[in-house]
Amino acid sequence: TQLLEQSPQFLSIQEGENLTVYCNSSSVFSSLQWYRQEPGEGPVLLVTVVTGGEVKKLKRLTFQFGDARKDSSLHITAAQPGDTGLYLCAVPNAGGTSYGKLTFGQGTILTVHP
Amino acid sequence: KAGVTQTPRYLIKTRGQQVTLSCSPISGHRSVSWYQQTPGQGLQFLFEYFSETQRNKGNFPGRFSGRQFSNSRSEMNVSTLELGDSALYLCASSSDGDGSPLHFGNGTRLTVT
Questions:
Q1: Do B48 and A101 touch (CB under 8 A)?
Q2: What is the dihedral angle through the alpha carbons of A95, A48, B25, B65, rounded to the nearest 10 degrees?
Q3: Least packed by Cβ within 10 Å: which of A23, A26, A91, B77?
Q4: For the segment A46-79, what is each residue's pLDDT rounded down to a tens digit?
C-alpha cells in the first residue's frame, strides 16, 4: 500500500483545458510538497503547504491542502504545452527524523497537446 | 549559483560489475540525499549524508553504499549490479537536510545489461 495515492496516473489534454491532480492518504502530515519533473531533468519544487485548508497559487497553478492535512490537490487553469511533465506529491519522513527523506507519490504524467 | 551537478549523465554496465556515481551539491549545502527512480517503484529514498556522516537510510540492500567528502561532494556506489538496478539515480542537496527544501540534480541514468 502506497503512503500517498496520486490520481490520475496519466492525463492527456488539449491546450486551454483545466485539470486537477489529487494526492490522497489516510495519514496526517505536517506538510506536503508538490514537484514537477520534466523529461531528462530532476524534480523541481513547486510549493510546500503546511496548514490545513491552505490554498497557494503559482500563476495558473492552485494548490490546496486538505482541512485534515491528509490530502492535497493541484489545479491547473488553461493548461499550456509547457505544463507537460510528471507531477509528484511528497511528504517528509513520517514517524521519525526527516533528514533528507521524502516519501513520494507515484506521480501523474501530464501531457498537454497544442 | 550553480545547481546540483551529477556525473556521469549516462552509464551502461554489465551485471556483476560495480559503479560509482558522483554528486556535487549547491555551494553551502551540507546535506546530500540520494534517490532511485524507476517506472515501477517511483522515487525511493536511498540515504542521506551530512558532514560526512550517514544520518538516514532507506530500505535498500547493502550493495548500495555512499559517502560524503569534507567539501560536501558525495558519491554512491552499487556493487554486484543486477538488472533491476537499472534506474535514474537522483541526488538532492539542501542546507541542513532537516526541513529545508531539496534541490535535485538531473540524475544519472544507469542501464545494467
A1: yes
A2: 30
A3: A26
A4: 999 999 999 999 999 999 999 999 999 999 999 9
Model pLDDT for residues B92-104, shown as the tens digit of each residue: 999 887 778 899 9
Distance of alpha carbon B38 from alpha carbon B36, whole angstroms: 7
Can you give the pLDDT at residue A101? 87
d(CA A13, CA A11): 6
Q: C-alpha cell of B104?
A: 535535485
Of A88, A90, A99, the CB nearest to B56: A99
What is d(CA A90, CA B104) in angstroms, rounded to the nearest whole number? Answer: 14
Quote the CA–CA distance of A14 and A80 in Å, as a whole number.
Answer: 8
Give the mean pLDDT of B20-25.
98
> Taking CA atoms, what residue in B is nearest to A2?
B41
